[in-house]
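Supplementary Methods, section 5.1.

A reviewer requested that the exact input to the structure prediction be made available. We therefore reproduce it here, unchanged from the version used in the analyses.
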Amino acid sequence: MAQVKKLLLHVAVELAERKRTCHRNRRKHVILKGTACLAVFEGPRGTRRNYCAECAGAMLTLAQDDLTGLSRALDAGMPFRGARA
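The structure derived from this sequence is encoded token-by-token as follows.
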């Protein structure tokens, strides 16, 4: 039997090895060394964007809503595109 395809390949929670800047709110949010943050890898070169816990929480809530919508749409046989950024 074929393995189930993993969809969330480009997202990870990491501990910051140094001070980082939150990509969503660069002027106000700082990610301190040793703090958990969301790392999102984008594009063919795997460019990393870091997000603090506050911003990541909002992003993950939106992603969970989209996953729920996708699942419900698939069960109902209806199209669904999810939220747009």
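Helices lie at 53-76. These observations are discussed further in the main text.
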